[in-house]
Design brief:
- The chain folds into two domains: about 140 residues, Immunoglobulin-like, CATH 2.60.40.10; about 100 residues, Immunoglobulins (Immunoglobulin-like).
- With about 270 residues, it is mostly beta strands.
- The chain has no helices and 20 strands.
- The N terminus is likely disordered.
- A hairpin with a 3-residue loop joins strand 14 and strand 15.
């Protein structure tokens, strides 16, 4: 008897303006602070076909390399936002070029302890994922048929902050690594201390022995509350014919572009010829 093995691939993204497949979602994250109780999310179908999407919650931990790992068995120390959130609607159908506003409501309770509660909204494309070729009868019935199907989705963090909260950051273990004699990577560790997550932009500036400084790298970096540190490896862009073998690198971790400018942490690395 012929058997079918279905492999499902789930994709999650973390971009400034989220787009996966034909779905565009803004904003990239939602933070409920103070007395803020409501938020709106904008969905847009950028494709050429009508699409159906379901909206639900998922909970993740972050690894020290910045990847998200689905929490299968939560423990008592984890604080999830899901019990305090309401979404409407949870299912949307969007024609090509059509948009939809999703309403998100936060309901705090009196017994919530101070700190940060986090869950992720999961936008799942509800296509027909029937394996192709299932209707074919000419296959050898003694063989196993394997169908690989990609189920695309987007997750965005929803954060609730309660009571007295704070966070700080430091940089250490800065090290320049060179591959193939020409490709440079800066490795470093960002340390987080406090009862909330931190999210910002990491910028690297090259200060040559002679000449003007210029930026050689930038990336967005977030550290969730399940982590005390993140290990970073960032590729440096050479410019002006510089070989990055003298002078120094100045690293600054600061607030994201859409927030009031605050420097969280700074560090420098001297380069030796």
């Amino acid at each position: 008897m012929k058997g079918y093995l279905l492999l499902i691939i789930i994709v999650t993204l973390s971009l400034k303006m989220f787009a996966q497949g034909d779905l565009l979602v803004t904003p990239k994250r939602v933070v409920f602070e103070g007395n803020n109780q409501k938020a709106e999310l904008d969905l847009m179908n950028t494709g050429s076909d009508t699409a159906n999407y379901s909206i639900s919650f998922r909970n993740y931990n972050m690894t020290e390399q910045g990847k998200l790992a689905l929490i299968e068995k939560p423990d008592s120390t984890q604080m999830f936002a899901e019990p305090y959130l309401r979404i409407f609607p949870r299912q949307v159908t969007l024609a090509p070029g059509e948009g939809q506003v999703i309403m998100l409501q936060c309901r705090r309770t009196a017994n919530m302890i101070a700190g940060e509660y986090r869950s992720h909204l999961w936008f799942r494309d509800e296509k027909n994922y029937e394996p192709r070729g299932k209707e074919k009868s000419s296959l050898d019935t003694n063989q196993m048929s394997v169908s690989v199907i990609a189920i695309y989705g987007i997750t965005i963090p929803i954060i609730i902050r309660v009571g007295n909260v704070g966070v700080s950051a430091t940089l250490n273990d800065l090290k320049l690594e060179t591959k193939e004699d020409t490709i440079h990577y800066l490795k470093l560790t960002i340390n987080r201390k406090g009862n909330i997550s931190i999210n910002g932009k990491l910028k690297v500036e090259y200060i040559p022995s002679k000449g003007k400084p210029y930026q050689v790298a930038a990336m967005n970096v977030g550290i969730y509350t399940n982590l005390n540190k993140r290990d970073i490896s960032i590729k440096l862009n050479k410019s002006n014919g510089q070989d990055l073998k003298s002078g120094k690198l100045k690293v600054r971790y600061s607030s994201p572009d859409d927030a009031k400018y605050v420097v969280f942490a700074e560090g420098e690395l001297d380069l030796v010829k």
